[in-house]
């Protein structure tokens, strides 16, 4: 159904909505709780369509919120731009907030706010933000009571598992689990410096050894940078550019792409961290997205795996150039760090060492990160219970020796990391029995999943083989979102196009 309002009818509709102070909310679809419309009617819109009996021509214009980066918000006249929003309601810890004014001030971008319109964002808010940022949201304006009543009647309530998880998180925070072990950090950084120093020392005398050491250093730098970019403590803030300088991987690119993976894990067509086609398909595709390579993907998997780091580096440079043009926070600082990385690498390592090391590091990293998700549940729809979805879509790897424990870089504790992404990775081994007990006590579907490090690799290979032997499936979800934010920008988000836009709603 397409909504169409014009002429006097539009003026009457606008006046009635304004008089009832309900101009920010009206249901248009029973398919999704966040399919809502909000009028953005200026006074000129009413008078331009003729006189309306009983309507005061001096009636106040609709209001919207405008916020700064510290979440200080004031009411302003609602604009009439296509992307302007007069309502955008998100639930955090049981309270609905109107984030229409905060979305543009959000440091990580407005797309995150848009995606959770009409949804609960408690776990994402807690998982990705510092204590200071988490206190800021309480200053944001509350949603209109009428809007809240309709949302609560339509939106999936918090599950018992979610409520229990929040209690667990509060207890862990009170017990200091986010305090970083600086001795452990010094040890990990010392290993990286030793690898990089060894690579430089052997670059011209033992190039094969230098390639191995450089590859290990790159992989290690990636895991360290991954921990620091996720981190919310002061040390992580100071080390945020480590991934850019040591591994050539940008925090902006990583945050945009990887945080979406954390928030919407294994959601088909949304989570691009599990989208490895057209070289590797995690499920049988639609014929129009199929590739002849799929039939042999289980035999050639190591080739696309090897290109992982190279592709990440290309994506990093594309994103940071755009970020600088858009004047995103610290974009120039990140660009300088990336340029410093390439200057250092090309100055101290021969091309014939540096390039093979990139592909070696890509192979190692892909072998580690891919099997912990691809062999588990894939979701065709949005999952409102974040906690249960993480248990169902994640499998840990049990390492067998100290070298593997170091090489996996904390990714063997994938579930711990997904539930608590900002927690220092050194805490994950101790967190493992706590989550095992949590899964058992709360009857989490599938429980706590883990397999041996080689068994989990075999499971991933079996998946590729099974999909290779399958026929294409017409209508199967497309695994890639056409770019990091594509699943939102292409209109797959319930908030796409601006909440309340009259045109193009159906």
Description:
It comes from Chaetoceros tenuissimus. This is Cytochrome b5 heme-binding domain-containing protein. Keywords: Membrane, Signal, Transmembrane, Transmembrane helix. One of its GO terms (cellular component) is membrane. By secondary structure, the chain is mainly alpha-helical. It folds into two domains: about 5-155, Cytochrome b5-like heme/steroid binding domain (Flavocytochrome B2, Chain A, domain 1, Roll); about 180-490, no CATH class. Helices cover about 50% and strands about 5% of the residues. Helix 15 (about 310-325) runs antiparallel to helix 16 (about 330-350).
Structure, briefly:
By secondary structure, this protein is mostly helical. Helix content is 51%, strand content 5%.
Shape: globular
Write down the domain tally: 2
In whole angstroms, the N-to-C terminal distance is: 5 Å
Radius of gyration: 25 Å
Number of extended strands: 7
Average residue pLDDT:
80
Task: Report the sheet-strand fraction.
Answer: 5-15%
For the largest sheet, list the strands in their spatial order.
4-3-5
The tally of helices reads 24
Most strands sheet: 3 strands, mixed
Protein name: Cytochrome b5 heme-binding domain-containing protein
Signal peptide: 1-24
Domain Cytochrome b5 heme-binding: 90-152
GO molecular function, one term: oxidoreductase activity, acting on paired donors, with oxidation of a pair of donors resulting in the reduction of molecular oxygen to two molecules of water
